[in-house]
């Protein structure tokens, strides 16, 4: 990075002056674009709140051993179903485990699911959609009919079918969600690729002898990324709810793993007299899902080229 102006004054004024001048290198131009995007993103208070909650979730997951007040797996039957107190902030469950500590460790399971789905669904949907949109013809027909086959079933029903076929388990739940979450991404990528394929710079790349693989990977896919990142981020709320639903039905993380959906399932028998057993993990699911929705809306405002 180039040096700041000598008369910059305070750091804030210096940064503002640095960002207001004309870029002098490609790296500086990218920095200016990132700075402008960050200002636009944080100008939306709801998006900033969603981002803050996601950052907090990551910090809670990273520092879970230090934040948890009790062992999340330790049972204490004489202390079962105690209401929230100074000793147990969120109360205890039916076998005396501290609910706050289990929610803290459950954040790791939630992030694990979100991360795996994000890094698998995005590339699969992008590759299928970009290839179909650019190549067209038989390739487009085959890939899109396969996509339509998955889209013809309700997503949750198909996820439950895959999860039941694969068997209970956290990894199987993630695989089931991945198998049903990529078709909408592929559809979006195909629509973007169809628009990009007719551009003049794509025709120029063909005239220069660029192969179809090079054009797809070097030109089409990068231009599809902004819309896909927004869509995948918005889908994360649904992924969290689906994973919680699988855990609720016993098809996700298995006991004694502290997973929020499974915690809600085991506590539903006591919800009338001991509200905290269900309410606390349910609120965690609600807050994190809402945070990803707010964060995705903010990203759409920044990354979607059709936004003003």
What's the topology here?
Blueprint lengths: L10 H10 L5 H17 L2 H18 L1 H4 L31 H37 L1 H15 L3 H12 L3 H28 L2 H8 L4 H37 L11 H8 L8 H28 L5
Helix pairs in contact: 2-12, 3-5, 3-12, 5-6, 5-8, 5-10, 6-8, 7-8, 8-10, 10-11, 10-12, 11-12
Protein model, in words:
The structure is a single chain. The model is unreliable at 1-8 (pLDDT under 50). Helix 5 packs antiparallel against helix 10 (212-248). The protein is globular, with a radius of gyration of 24 Å. It is built from twelve helices and no strands. 72% of the residues lie in helices and 0% in strands. By secondary structure, the chain is mostly helical. It starts with 10 loop residues before the first helix and ends in a 5-residue tail after the last helix.
Note poorly predicted spans: 1-8
Task: State the major sheet.
Answer: none
Number of strands: 0
Q: Helical stretch count?
A: 12
- N-to-C series of helices and strands: HHHHHHHHHHHH
Task: Estimate the global geometry from the Cα principal axes.
Answer: globular
What's the overall average pLDDT, rounded?
86
End-to-end separation: 30 Å
Q: Name the beta content range.
A: under 5%
The whole-angstrom Rg is 24 Å
Helix/strand-derived category reads mainly alpha
- What portion of residues is helical? over 70%
Highlighted features:
single chain; 0% strand; 308 residues; globular; mainly alpha; disordered N terminus
